[in-house]
Amino acid sequence: MTARHLGVDVGGTNCKLAVVESAGDRPGPPGDRPRLLATTTVPTGSGEPGEVVERVAAAAAGLLAAHGPVAAAGVGVPGLFDEATGRTLLLPNLPAAWNGYRLRGPLADRLGVPTALINDARAFALAESRLGAAAGCSTVVCLTLGTGVGGGVVIDGRLRFGPHGRAGEVGHQVIDPAGPPCGCGNRGCVEAFAAGPALCRLGGQASPEAVFAAAAAGDPRAGAAVQAVVGRLAVGIANMVTVLWPERVVVGGGLAAAGGQLFGPLRRAVVAAAPLVDPAAYEIVPAALGPAAGAIGAALWARERAVTGPPGPGGVTGGYGPRR
Ligand SMILES: [Zn+2]
Fold it and tell me: Among 108, 149, 195, 215, which residue has the fewest nearby CB atoms (within 10 Å)?
């Protein structure tokens, strides 16, 4: 028995869409065999929510004409949402009109299928754990290193979602209570130390790529910046490894493009900071799915939400939750 699902990843510049086909009667290994059928990308434009819904619906119609029908849709959003109402809350990279915008109901009506929301970093984690760099693994920690540090955790084959999808914020564990302020309101989070802006500031360069390039060329300030960021990141990953014993830690996002320059020292630092964990028990690997990961994960979430059930009474066309 196979089923197809649509995934949408709403971003500040582009919205990506994917159709994924799954077989097996339950999500997660070993019964899961998801397969990416098609992707497409549409510019976010002004970013105003009404315009984004129109653009996504039009792109979805084109994609589904060739690769549909789908049983349900998942929508990844770059920030917070309320699962009961289907409204987006704080989406820092999109216009303020998204704050309290009723996204799920209208979009479900336009798409004609039940629609579920998910945070984009959780979608990334689900995609990489099912058919990306950690395919076949049952417990996985994922991080995306960009302007922030997003994350998600899969435990025994299930994405740890939590109320309103807010579990799995790997980047907001405090690793130094006296550290710099973080966007979340706390101090000394992994994100405050190890995201792109921190690396650029420490390294005295305009982009993370430039810091890594300067470090490779022998620039001492850039080299020290990479070392500092790797050290902080390693503490956060070592904490997760010690608590969860994942088979794989997947690292994606812009900073992961540094390749061996990041992963070599990071691996050594995590092993040193997690003495209770057998180093042979886990790997730290780069993400494999590229920019489509969020859309793929949103599609997978549409299926998993249908299997695991909604948090409350479900609407028929309004999505996995009450229509409001
Ligand atoms: Zn934080």
Answer: 215
Contact 161, 122 (CB under 8 A): yes
Rounded distance from Cα 192 to ligand 1 centre (Å) = 7
CA distance 132 to 66: 24
Give residue 70 CA to ligand 1 midpoint distance, Å. 37
Look at phi and psi of residue 191 and say left if phi exceeds 0, alpha if psi is from -120 to 50, else beta: alpha
Question: Ligand 1: distance of its center to the CA of 268 in Å?
Answer: 25
CA of 274 relative to ligand 1 center, distance in Å: 22
254 in Cβ contact with 149 (< 8 Å): no
The length of the chain is 324
| Residue entry with tokens 């996985």 | 140
- Which among 34, 21, 245, 10 is positioned nearest to 140, based on CA atoms? 245
User: What tokens were used for 211?
Assistant: 């810091």
- For tokens 């809350």, the residue is 89
Helix 260-273 × helix 220-244 angle, to 10°:
50
159-190: pLDDT as tens digits: 999 999 999 999 999 999 999 999 899 999 99
How far is the centre of ligand 1, averaged over its atoms, from the C-alpha of 114 (Å)?
Answer: 33
Q: How far is the CA of 196 from the centre of ligand 1 (A)?
A: 14
Tens-place pLDDT, residues 10-44: 999 999 999 999 986 566 655 667 999 999 999 99
31-81, pLDDT tens digit by residue? 667 999 999 999 999 999 999 999 999 999 999 999 999 999 999 999 999
pTM value surpassing 0.90: yes
Q: What is the mean pLDDT of residues 133-151?
A: 95
CB-neighbour burial class of residue 102 (10 A; exposed 0-12, middle 13-18, buried 19+): middle
The rounded distance, in Å, linking the Cα atoms of 89 and 81 is: 5
The DSSP line for 126-163 is: HHHHHHSTTTT-SSEEEEEESSSEEEEEEETTEE---G
Burial 178-197 (b: 16+ CB within 10 A, else e): ebeebeeeeebbbbbbbbbe
